[in-house]
Amino acid sequence: MAVAGAGKNSFQDESPASFSSFSPFNIYILTSFRSIFVKASPLETINKVISGIAALTRFPAGELRLQDESGHDLPGDCPIGLCGLDENNISLRLAYPLLATKHSGACAAANELVSFVTKLLSTGKIKIPGFLDIFTNLFRKFVDMTPTEREEDIVGHLHAFIFSGAHTALGMLWQSPVIIHRHFALYGLNLFLELNRKKFPQRFDFYYLPVLLELADEFVRIAGRENPLYLQCRKAVGDLLCSKNWRFSGHSNTENMVPALYPFVVDLVEEITMSLSTESWFLYFYRALKKLKNKLFHCLGKIETFMAEKAEGEVRFLLRQRMNILDVLFCFHKLCKIFDPKYGFVSSLIFARRLPVNALIRHADKSHAYYWLLQYKEALDFEVKERLLMMLFADTEEGGYRYYYLFINRLHLLSDSFIQIGQVNATELHAELSVVFKDEEGTGHGVTREWFYLLCREIFSPKMKLFSPCEIDRRRFFPNPTSPFDRTQLEHYRFAGRFVALALRHEFQLGVTFDRIFFNQLAHKGIDLEDVQDADPALYMSCKKLLEMDEEFLDSDALGLTFVRETEHLGYRKMIPLCPRGEEIVVNSRNKKEFVSFLIKSYYVESIDQKIHYFREGFMDLFSNIKFENLFFQSLNLEDFDRMLRGSEEKINMNDWKNHTVYCGYKAEDQQIISFWKIVDGMQEEQRRILLQFWTSIRFLPVGGFCNLPQKLYICNSFAKEEDNWSLPTSQTCFHQLQLPPYPSMSIMRQKLHLITQEHVSCTFGLY
């Protein structure tokens, strides 16, 4: 069925009730305010036609009736072809019976207004003061009758204004060639809008919108989009939508109302486009950005005040309700790119309101792409940066798999892992990782964490020769400059990159970190002499002495230095030029800085750049988008990356440990629990870490300590008996459970705990 009103776009209803095998009927619907043309199939019912008219006029379909020329209602469920109508000339009248009975006063007032306009148009000479008073009083009479309590009464009253054709009467005045008639039309519209603005209850302003839209439609139909009547209606619609009490949610007819606003959006776009073609657009744009910034500053300030005054639970609830502020901030960020490429507007706002911004990000859904905030990393807390960086990794759904299983033989830990991690399609690694050791029953997160720990020891061990430890800090590594450049070795660097990214994605602290010469090159930053201080103290001191050496002595060539460096491989010494014809260039006071720069580049850039390239490729395989390659490392400094990779460097806090432990089968005051904590208190730090690893498969706590673990720790009574020779404690690392037998004395418990805190025992998943 197609329905069209004068000056409106037709729409086609493609429901199954339309049958193309029948010739459609042309139907003219007469109303007091408009003629509507309908093209419908003979098999379509009267109710179907009414539904189309209701969508066009915004009247409730259930209240409308169609009448024939004799004034009789046509049955709603009757097909048009069976209504006994002359198919060559069908003219029907639209009726709104309930309106005429329930809102008879409103209909009468609106009809009086229409009659007066008709009289005004037919009068040759107009007495302006008298006619204007009558015109004003008629509008006041209609508006004063507006109900203010019940929704259905308000809607019906407003429908009476439209159904009577009062808005069409104003349009007729505007179309008149007499200038005074046009003045009356504009005055009448402004009066109607002003009176309703004062009269209407704000909680019911949603029901005023359809009247404004109908007025706007009528004035566009008669005079286009440039006439003052339409522009006034458009302004009224904008004022209504911008009011602080306006809400779309909760109204049943919102779905029909939103498309009616599209023409206003088109108008807005056209006006903005025209404004951009003038020189003044820059100033307007600047003012708009400044206004938006002030609004965001105010909103974030209110959140900051709320955070300072309210309880944690209330704050958490508010933050989850205000996540849309981050979306608005993103729009502000994108707009500022046009006006302010350096994002000074945005950075000053985020720095000024860093507390609420950080709080909002902490409570944001990880599925949302808020990683753009990493551009303002200086204003972000470490935990917030870490959360945003986790958003860069591919989700399980993106990879297309639920779990990716690794089947590992402990005797071939490295080779099995290399094949199943380094030699597979990267998208398989986007799934959740699950590790199963051959001939062992244990599965779950605890086993996976143990695999991470054991494989990390293998990859960074001296026998692999992939990485070299720093002289000063043996837990800080960089690619081995002397390792071979064969294809297999390079693929192992790609494998190592994937492994480290997997550890970060699964939030496992490896307990190792990267040296600055490694990290800087991953972030595409240069390195200088200060960066090699930890990796090669001997080279650092030699270069420092050279740079500080007496210039006269250096220029005497007493050292005999040229732009070459010496290497030794398999007992053979080799001289490598640092630059073309370097063996002929003598080091002196003028080129000593250049010599040091070339020397560092040769040792720690050219010798490892290809290895870093393969490592970076493997690392980036775990990201959802290749464009994140630079964003990840450039959003961090070395200290941040250390905290993500190594975890907390602080000693284990015993009070924190106790507070995050729950007892099953024991009570905190039981002698076994008191003895247990006394023994752990007396352990050395390394023994405590081994116990923690035996218990949870976690050797290094995340930054923030036990409170940032995914769950509590448990000590459970295993109910072992003396005839079982008081067996050793066991653990279920997936659930952070330590199964502790009820030992009869502290000495027996100390002996058992001493056994499980040996390195070779803690790495057997609680089995001895």
From TrEMBL:
Q: Name a biological process GO annotation.
A: protein polyubiquitination
- The EC number of this protein is 2.3.2.26
Ranges for domain HECT: 425-768
Q: Which GO terms describe its cellular component?
A: cytoplasm
Keywords in UniProt for this one?
Answer: Transferase, Ubl conjugation pathway
Q: What is the reaction catalyzed?
A: S-ubiquitinyl-[E2 ubiquitin-conjugating enzyme]-L-cysteine + [acceptor protein]-L-lysine = [E2 ubiquitin-conjugating enzyme]-L-cysteine + N(6)-ubiquitinyl-[acceptor protein]-L-lysine
The yes or no answer to whether the keyword Disulfide bond is present is no
Supply the InterPro entries for this chain. E3_ubiq-protein_ligase (IPR050409), HECT_dom (IPR000569), Hect_E3_ubiquitin_ligase (IPR035983)
Superkingdom of this protein's organism: Eukaryota
Q: Where is the active site?
A: C734
Q: What's a Gene Ontology MF term here?
A: ubiquitin protein ligase activity
Query: Protein name, please?
Result: HECT-type E3 ubiquitin transferase
The record lists the organism as Platanthera zijinensis
Q: What is the lineage of its organism?
A: Eukaryota, Viridiplantae, Streptophyta, Embryophyta, Tracheophyta
- The protein's gene is named UPL5
